[in-house]
Design brief:
alpha+beta, BirA Bifunctional Protein, domain 2, SH3 type barrels, 2 domains, 21% helix, globular, binds adenosine-5'-triphosphate
């Protein structure tokens, strides 16, 4: 993979002595056939791995560029929300990928990424982890991780920066999780012992490469069955909110081949596109 054109300002803070820092050489050895597809930059600290990767994309960073940060000082969720993480407790990283065609073809990408994350966790031995439409990773009704997909149009293709944050243990900064729509969960409550950080990260990248390939060929339709098999709230009564106001209520009946949520209401089955909607179980 070609070396990236890096901004020296991004490279100021990367002490290699810290044991929690991902070592790209060690990671490389664990990636198997996916080895040639990723170029991983491991940082001690940055505001947000996705923000930095979007900037590098504008400077021509290739598909497969990855930034993993031991500490994010301004980790982002969707719609300006924060993702809380700490070096000991979290794995936070972003991956840049490019897909043929326009961005409208990528509507279901955050769901497809969820499939990859679950496949990786399952390969590490986790069970009972599920997916909440469109971008949350749950254990029970608690949130174990989040996915943030950001898209940009390029000539004849679309660029995606996929940010993933996983709780290995509960970050102290979460406290009681006041104001969170869902309680937080952590992998150390699901898997004992926890997988070694590089092994977990390698499984995630391997699964992402596979899922990106399938998505590029067949869109979300090619991964829909796998998503449905891991869907957290299938057949549960749910409510959809926009800016805190209820806009729909019904029974959650999965997602269609574009990744739109299907909700059975008195008026029939309605398609709900993500964007500014929040899904809550009743
Ligand atoms: P939606 O309204 O679509 O359901 P959300 O509340 O899940 O969105 P996201 O952008 O997906 O929002 O994730 C950010 C939210 O996740 C934060 O506002 C906070 O409630 C919660 N959160 C932040 N950090 C963590 C964490 N480490 N573990 C679990 N939950 C977190």
């Amino acid at each position: 993979m070609p070396a990236m054109n890096r901004n020296p300002a991004d490279m100021t803070d990367r002490p290699r002595s810290c044991s929690l820092l991902i070592d790209p050489v060690r990671l490389h050895a664990l990636l198997g056939e996916a080895r040639g597809r990723f170029d991983v930059d491991s940082l001690a600290e940055c505001p947000s791995t996705s923000t930095l990767l979007l900037r590098r994309a504008e400077q021509g960073a290739p598909a497969g560029s990855v930034i993993v940060a031991e500490r994010q000082t301004a980790g982002r969720g969707s719609r300006g929300r924060s993702w809380l993480a700490s070096p000991q407790s979290s794995l936070t990283f972003s991956v840049l990928w490019r897909f043929p065609g326009g961005i409208e073809r990528l509507a279901g990408l955050s769901l497809a990424v969820g499939v990859a994350v679950l496949q990786a966790l399952e390969a590490c031995g986790a069970s009972g982890v599920t997916l909440k439409w469109p971008n949350d990773i749950l254990h029970g009704d608690a949130k174990l991780g989040g996915i943030l997909v950001e898209l940009q149009s390029e000539p004849d293709q679309a660029l995606a920066v996929v940010g993933i944050g996983l709780n290995l243990s509960l970050p102290e900064s979460i406290g009681e999780g006041q104001g969170f729509a869902l309680p937080a969960a952590a992998l150390d409550g699901i898997l004992a012992p926890l997988p070694e950080r590089h092994e977990l990260f390698a499984q995630l990248l391997i699964a992402l490469a596979r899922v990106f390939d399938r998505f590029a060929e067949g869109g979300f339709a090619a991964l829909r069955e796998q998503w449905l098999a891991r869907h957290a709230w299938q057949d549960r009564p749910v409510r959809l909110l926009r800016e805190g106001r209820v806009v729909n209520e019904g029974v959650c009946c999965g997602a269609d081949s574009d990744g739109a949520l299907l909700v059975r209401t008195a008026a029939g089955v309605e398609r709900c596109l993500s964007g500014d909607l929040s899904l809550r179980a009743l």
